[in-house]
Structure to design on (249 residues):
């Protein structure tokens, strides 16, 4: 155990922040920490848009499902898959690139690069005593988000990260048991073992909710997931991603 591992294991999503903005130096450190993340083949296929403008933050909060903490935080970052600079590079060197830029592989590279960078930034923020929460709700209305941020073709906003000084300390949510997530040599082949592990986790989560809410809630994790997966959402995504130039081949 060390301070890095302790920071990782103590992660909590913070959804209420003090009315205190991050300094330019703090923002610089978080972006540099993001850039220190691994990147496939040194491609660095992402960009980060920091949103300071109060009106833009308010608009993004509404688009993300009226999540107030998108507008009220120390700083709001939007992580984007970005192959725009690579298109420009191809033009500068007069080499064809469209089939590669529009491939599923490069789309995956850009998404993975951006995600690794974001997690580095969040870990850095938490190590500084700050809190953070990921905002996938930006994908509710990506065309409007893209309009606000003025992202060109080959730049796809993926999610936001609200960072700031925590004004709450929520309980830590227990993740799936290690033996359910970690497989050795091959994926678990016995479906019944897998189902039993899920049932055990349901019992744990149900007890957690019951205790946290004084008996007002006792739902299970698999119940939550079954409900979530039964309701189609963001079904426009494939067409929008392709219109941005990604994942077409």
């Amino acid at each position: 155990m060390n301070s890095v591992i302790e920071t990782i294991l103590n992660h909590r999503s913070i959804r209420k922040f003090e009315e205190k903005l991050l300094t330019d130096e703090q923002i610089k450190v978080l972006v540099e920490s993001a850039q220190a993340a691994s990147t496939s083949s040194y491609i660095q296929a992402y960009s980060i848009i920091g949103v300071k403008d109060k009106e833009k933050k308010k608009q993004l909060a509404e688009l993300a499902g009226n999540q107030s903490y998108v507008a009220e935080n120390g700083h709001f970052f939007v992580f984007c898959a970005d192959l725009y600079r690579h298109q420009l590079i191809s033009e500068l060197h007069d080499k064809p690139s469209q089939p590669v830029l529009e491939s599923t592989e490069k789309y995956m590279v850009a998404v993975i690069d951006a995600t690794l960078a974001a997690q580095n930034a969040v870990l850095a923020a938490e190590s500084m005593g700050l809190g953070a929460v990921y905002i996938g709700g930006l994908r509710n209305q990506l065309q409007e988000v893209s309009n606000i941020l003025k992202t060109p073709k080959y730049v796809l906003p993926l999610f936001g990260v609200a960072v700031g000084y925590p004004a709450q300390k929520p309980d830590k949510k227990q993740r799936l048991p290690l033996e359910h997530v970690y497989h050795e040599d091959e994926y678990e082949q016995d479906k019944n073992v897998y189902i039993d592990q899920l049932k055990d986790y349901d019992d744990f989560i149900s007890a957690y909710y019951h205790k946290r809410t004084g008996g007002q809630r006792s739902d299970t994790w698999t119940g939550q997931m079954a409900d979530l997966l039964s309701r189609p959402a963001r079904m426009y995504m494939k067409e929008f991603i392709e219109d941005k130039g990604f994942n077409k081949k």
